[in-house]
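Summary for the funding panel

The consortium committed to producing paired sequence-structure records for every protein in the target list. Below we show the first two records in order, beginning with the earlier of the two.
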Amino acid sequence: MKVVHPISRAWITTGGTGAQNYDEFADDAEITAIIAANPRSALAVEMPHKAPGSLGKTFLAALPDAAARLAEERADGSYLPAEQVVVLYRITAPGEPAAYGLWAMVDTDQISTSADEPGLVIRNEDVFIGKVRERVALAETLQTLLSPVLLLQTGRGDDLHAALESASAAAGAPAATDLDQTGRTHAIWVIPAGPLQDELTALAGGGDLVVADGNHRSLAAQTGGLPRFLAVVTTPASVAIQPYNRLISELTVRDLPAALTAAGAQVEELPRPAAIPAKGTVEVYAGGRSYAVVLPGRAPVRSTTWTTPWSSGSCSATCSASTRATSGSPTSAATTRPSGCAARSTPAAASWRC
């Protein structure tokens, strides 16, 4: 059964439209500043109410502005149309292995949210329904999907990685490149109908697809009644977990070690400040004391870490774990918006006409 398909009508960036992911900012004013510096930025369409010309409007009220901006950019050549294509995606940086992904469409009816629900697309996080409604409204207004769901191919990831690497090496000059805020270069190649496209889509759909980023967008596809959603399918070798921060407010400092122990975790106080630990271990800093925590019944986690400054009375935690490369930067091509973690700015690869 085929679950990964070509994009029926894609809009391919010609470069210069990439932008940092909209949910990576501590202050919305940063989004406005990025759009002001580069009005062609995909953020002007993705977050229309934060563009300088739309400030003061709600997200819904600014949707006509988003439609006007996208239409203008298509007209001025910022995006070029392509039919029945997939898009090969590569992220590179000095001193790092290359990361790969494939822009394509995936069947919405493959989304599964529990172990007893059939489907190859495994969604694993709760979402904010207000954000889902915004994604649905944006897609309905634009009749275009701007941002992909980042999917990790867990069944044939090594085969897919090798095929994407080989295809990019043989593909010649990319259709477009973009440089993100971390110094990573994002490149895309358009793959038309033919044997290579068939091979890549078969490998991309060759096993369970875990949602690495885009839980809201996947639910928006379901809520909006879309038969397929835009995705970047990446490989385990293309992602790594890096430090990130998290705030935990549900527990007080004095309750934390006992609560973790009661839940079955192994908790050991450390004679040093919390740091990035070995795989499978979490380190926590709470109330001036540090702990190493091994979670119950869990296989070693891929580079996951928690470093957490806890304020007195409640737990303000800093966790560590963010994805690199494809997991961190796919942007949709008709509008480049990254999605993942660390390397989240990109050239964009393809968007889909609903």
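The next record, for a separate protein in the list, is shown here:
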Amino acid sequence: MAIFQRARRIFSRARFSFWPGQCLLVCALVWGGLSGCVRHEPPADVTIINNAEPESLDPAIITGQPEFRIVIGLFEGLARLDPETARPIPGLAERWEISPDACIYTFHLRTNLVWSTGEPITADDVVYSWIRALNPMSAADYAGQLYYLKNAEAFNTGKIKDPSLVGVHAPDKFTVCVELNHPTAFFPDICAMPIAAVVPRWTIEKYGDRWLMARPLPSSGPFELVAWRINDKVRLRKNPRYWDAANTRSEIIDLLPIGSSSAALNLYEGGQVDVVWDKELVPVELLDVLLKRPDFHTFNYLAAYFVRFNVTRKPFDDPRVRRALALAVDKERIVKKITRAGEQTASHLVPNGTAHYTSPAGLGYDPELAKKLLAEAGYPGGQGFPRFDYIFNAAAGGSAKIHEEIAIELQQMWHDTLGIDMELRQLEWKVYLSAQDHLDYNLSRSSWVGDYNDANTFLGMFTSNDGNNRTGWKNAQYDALIREANEQTDLNVREKLLQRAETILVRDELPIIPLYFYVGINYFDTNRIQGIYENILDDHPLQVIYKIKTGK
């Protein structure tokens, strides 16, 4: 299998040598021509390649960055993120007050809020949206972000049935009162996340699971949905009834689901797209050359690449096996040979530079210790170790090759060092997410972009009941440390508790193997496109992005 996969990689690279020339430009022109032939519609003000086809546009159930980028343009919460600093600023709420004990937030809604269809947005809509996200029937992976509310976890896990016991209430149509279990410094950040966005109750109750197909679809954000055409594009149009519509800079934005880095580059070079997001959409073969161009922008941000174990399956239920695999990975080889954009190797999960936090060191590269641990687990030299699979995602149009190349490298390392054999499974984005959700895998390539600038956005997802855990791993001590840390107001005490928790995660138990921290790359011409800022969350609100008018 390893030889076959390496042959495929060589063939792919040989085939790629034709792409930068005429071949891909023809493909790009054909793609654009076909799109134009099928429908007559006004051109977009800004066209963005957004990587994968969206899993959904429902704020309660989305989990991936491609979905987040679209949804924050359609549905707003009490807060939103500043495009330059990625810090929370007022959204549907014009202001809020915090009680002296920091456990009660009182949000005051703007009095001019209406849905894109004209109906008023009220405090009851906020309460409905949050309770819906917490309802067990919604199966929201991000529901755990709302567990800081009083009784939210109990309601989400079915221990209580009465939603009125959850700590979010509307005393009048312009006021939302939120009661937290304990002080939570990053709670305003959570209010800016899609899980806390405000969605239209009457539309959801009328159409059920098909509510996103309603036309017109009521939106609470700066844009409304014109069309979502699978494997074509999502088209958004400015919402003239949005409270801050005067500062929405573009009338129409198209977001294209293209996962082929070579196709993305050629569409960009041909002038058919204005912005390409994600390093995965930069051809690795051309990386050294492209990074010297002024329209290719690199930046550090809070994002980690790692491998998940499904600890409910043997032999990965044994921490010795997981540690053995981690110790057999030469991470320097991955960042120097494959990613090649200056990424830092990672032995821990929380990226360097996270506010008020420094991670403990995890495991390094130690092949001899890896062999010893595998032998202790009952598999000397890999004898008797079952074949296992490793899943990684393909995006629309053929997938960026980086996940495949990392998978092949891991396959070779584990075979050469430990004598074990791994099969590779490349899955379409939605199938890949579903496999993780249902623990239908042995090992999975994974990544996480921080939702806010705090260690909890990385460490909190591996608590036992968090929907984004997706490993089957549960550790009561870890849960207690995270809970205790988030109850602290003393930042030094909190940091020490989180460090103890992360040590369990990356040294002792290892339901994951951290590989490296991302370097972000976006490409767009700043002489043509404005409103995109390099921030620590790689978050770019659509309403501030616009194309400079040339007058031609």
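Regarding this second record: The CA atoms of residues 213 and 291 lie 41 Å apart. Confidence is low (pLDDT under 50) at residues 1-37.
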